[in-house]
Amino acid sequence: MTERIVLAYSGGLDTSVAIGWIHDATGADVIACAVDVGQGGEDLEVIRQRALDCGAVEAYVADARDEFASEYCMPALKANALYMDAYPVVSALSRPVIAKHLVKAAKKYGASAVAHGCTGKGNDQVRFEVSITSLAPGLQCIAPVRDLALTRDKAIDYAEKHNLPITTTKHNPFSIDQNVWGRAIETGFLEDIWNEPTKDVYNYTDDPAFPPVADELVLTFDHGIPVAIDGRAVSPLEAIQEMNRRAGAQGIGRIDIVEDRLVGIKSREIYEAPGAMALIEAHRELERVTLEREQGRFKREVQDRWTDLVYDGQWFSPLKRSLEAFIEETQRYVSGDVRLRLHGGRATVTGRRSDASLYDFNLATYDEGDTFDQSHAKGFIEIYGLGSKQATARDEKFGHGPSLDPDASNKGENE
Ligand code: ARG
Fold this sequence. Notes:
- Helices cover 43% and strands 19% of the residues.
- It is α/β, with parallel strands linked by helices.
- It has 2 domains: 4-172, HUPs (Rossmann fold); 176-291 and 334-353, Argininosuccinate synthetase, chain A, domain 2.
- A 5-stranded parallel sheet has the order 3-2-1-4-5, sandwiched between helices. The chain has a 5-stranded antiparallel sheet with strand order 10-9-8-13-14.
- Helix 4 crosses helix 5 (124-135) and helix 10 packs antiparallel against helix 11 (318-330).
- The longest helix has 20 residues, at 90-109.
- The termini are far apart.
- Residues 91-92, 123-124, 175-177, 184-186, 259, 269 line the site of arginine.
């Protein structure tokens, strides 16, 4: 029987050419698999047909939108996932769910390998292949662009020579990856990191400099997940979609950063993630109200590690799973309402309430009748500062006491 290879198919030039290119290089039949992670854009039935027209023996579309929103975006929200404190891991989240569907397809069609359209310079090749082999250790991975010398110019020539039903242009300025959690734009003139992004870079967001009137809404969370907007029940997918629309209209969630790739390269990337950024803002505030201080402090360490693992392609790793168990436990009381004001590029929390709140008005108030016994503070401070006080006494004994002279302290010297 002829060997079979499942290809992650996007409908674009590179993966359209890859169908014939892989067949020519390996003799294998190619099965195209497109995964819907809410990227919008072209009709997926059109994409499926194009794969067949480009020579795929089978082509199919997996609707993974709800699965992606519930099982990938929601864990990222619970983790307030922002790589380098900025990037809501948009592309990093979609790779493992796409990989899962590729592996499913490989099993279904008896394929021996899975192929993807990534280059050899980015994170996505790592994420695909580490995910694929974590799910199915026996499967081979092929990246035609990296392994079979499929350059862009060769792809254009191939498409023209074979009359493939795809528009070829040598002048496509950007490389774009998008899904319901956000959109990533790179290359072209953005590679000069001094260049400001032009208007045509953006698609999920309107210009925050010219916003419509402010939009106010109440998000209801249950165990860290948004379950209603203004009292209307929503699924995770619907919550993200509605927030994309409303926060996008206000220009919220535009991000422009130079980021550290796993493979050692710094790259400039523009992101748009209006829904994700607004949801994270609200979720984080609800955690401030419902998590105990030390628990919240430790969670921030855990969630940063979780985010790094996800960025680095370790979605299916044991450590990520263990950290997730911790994060999940912290969400026990992250339920309640957050009021958000969306305006001019910012999502601002203007109110919060929760039955599980740790905020106690009677403890916090500076008005008459508070329940906090201030006399306890004196002894607490005595003990809390004791270690440092003892150390200073010792420093003085050795002539290294703290200098109160402003000039000396600038030099970092005490004597
Ligand atoms: N740099 C981002 C990441 O590694 C996005 C990569 C997505 N690709 C793109 N064509 N912009 O997650």
